[in-house]
Every structure is written in C-alpha cells, then in structure tokens.
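pls read this protein.

:::
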Amino acid sequence: MNQSWYKKIMPKISDVQKDIGAIAKEIYDIEKVKSVLVWGSFARNLTKPNFPLRDIDIIAVTDILSDDLLSIIEDDTFSPLRMDREELESDGFSVSAVSFTKNFIKDRKYNLDYWTISSDEKLLHWGAITSSKEEWGEIQKSAEKYAYNLSGIDRKKLIRANKSKKETWYLSYKKHVEKLFENIPNGWFQSENNISDILKETKILI
C-alpha cells in the first residue's frame, strides 16, 4: 500500500473537512454506490475543529448483496482483487462486487476505515472486526493504554501534542490493534451492530 497517508497521521477535524466532500464524490461515482456516509469520531466531533482523528469511518451504501461481498477473502497467495473478469466469473465471484471493492478500498489522502451497507441491509467492514461495538470499545481502550505506555501521551491530550508525539501514539495504537487480528485473512466481515443504531450516528456526505 502507498504510505503517503503517514503524512496525515492524526489529522484534525478541520483538515479532513477540507477534503471529505471530494473523497465522498469519488466514492459515490463508483458503480453500485447509492450514497456515502461518515460516522465514528469524525461524525461525533464535527464541532471540535482541532480534534485529532485516528481514522475516518466511511460507509458506502450499495446495491450489492452481502454474500457477494463476504466471498471476497484474500491472503498472501490469493486475492479475487487480482483476478480478471473471466477468472472471476469462472470461480463464481460477483464481478460487480469485486470491482466495487477494488475502487472503494484504494489508498486515499487519509487513513480511511472502509464500511459498506449491502442491498440486503448488512453492515460490512473491510478487514477483521469484533462481533460487537462493546467488544471493539474494549480493544480500543487496551490499544490506547498501550499507546500511552509507549508515548507518554493520553488520548485526551493528543489535541495539544506535537506531530512527533501524535505519530508515536498513533503507530503504537495501530500496532496493538493489528497484533490482535494478524492471523485473520483480509476481506469483508459482517458487523453485528444494529444498522438503525449506526445510521443515527452517521452524517450523510452525498
């Protein structure tokens, strides 16, 4: 993956607001995308321009069935994303699901966390996730504690930290989370979170 986003580690809300419209438009133009939403820390902290973000949770609402997306699993030796149309059709993959995925998850200016709501109203995440919002919250607390031990900076004080401290904190946090999921292949995973509850926390971008 292109590592240019490292230049944007822990961007402020105000930084992202300048670009989020263009990012949403690019995603909206992908075939099968009906709308683009944002949620998580960005949506919750829009009134705090200096709030630093670990990542930005983007949701693409699509016309694609969840089963077609969930079949897209990749590892070091195999990936439907590297197959041509004939190979995909021969192996029973949905060409539109693979095409959407390739265009959606590509590297962009910021560290985006990719989500989709399928046509059968399932919430999916690109990359392994926990089964519930509560379990993910516990992992975040554990990762924040790990980052604090290495950087000496508490999550709430990142807003006043310099660039170097933010980078140390973020990379420590990211390393801890990745360690927990390191043996799980990449692909779409279904979240058990209630979509109605999630939609209450989102902001419609387009």
The longest strand covers residues 33-39. Residues 133-151 form the longest helix (19 residues).
